[in-house]
Amino acid sequence: MKKQHVQLSPSDREYLEALTRQGEQTAKMYRRALALLELDRGKTYSAVSETLHVTIPTLSVWAAKYTESGLEVLQDQHRSGRPIEIDGIQRAKITALACSTPPEGYAQWSLRLLADKVVELGYCEHISHTEVGQVLKKTN
């Protein structure tokens, strides 16, 4: 008898089979669900790895997480990192300001001058001149 890497509960198996039939989930979720189902059917890590184009360590992590937390393995975990501080409306205001006429005594806007004006107008609490440059670079 082949080793069963994952033992799904009947309700989990039913849920995963329904999930793979629907086609309304992300590719990551579909791949994880399919991997769990295949491992439950007794397929080896290498066979599932070849079929789904996923590395064997990734499969073992998914299997371990399933035994720990169940179907939560299907969802992406929260990723660390700094949250976005400048939204689309603020970016649009910065771009519009850069396209406007510069203040008296200046031939054109500098990044530092724009950064100071953005804070002065209250578009955001603080912004560096390099961040202003990145916003304007993305607008082309």
Question: How would you describe this protein?
Answer:
The radius of gyration is 25 Å and the shape is rod-shaped. By secondary structure, it is an all-alpha fold. The chain has helices at 10-22, 27-40, 45-52, 56-69, 88-99, 111-121, 129-139. It has seven helices and no strands.
Main features:
single chain; 140 residues; mainly alpha; 2 domains; 7 helices; 59% helix; rod-shaped
Topology (elements, then pairings):
Elements: H1 10-22, H2 27-40, H3 45-52, H4 56-69, H5 88-99, H6 111-121, H7 129-139
- Strand segment tally: 0
Indicate the low-confidence ranges by residue numbers. Answer: none
Outline, from the CA principal axes? rod-shaped
Order of SSEs? HHHHHHH
Mean of residue pLDDT? 89
Output the number of helix runs.
Answer: 7
Number of domains: 2
Main β-sheet: number of strands, strand sense, barrel status?
none
Radius of gyration: 25 Å
Global structural class: mainly alpha
Terminus-to-terminus distance = 62 Å
Beta-strand residue fraction:
under 5%
Helix percentage: 55-70%
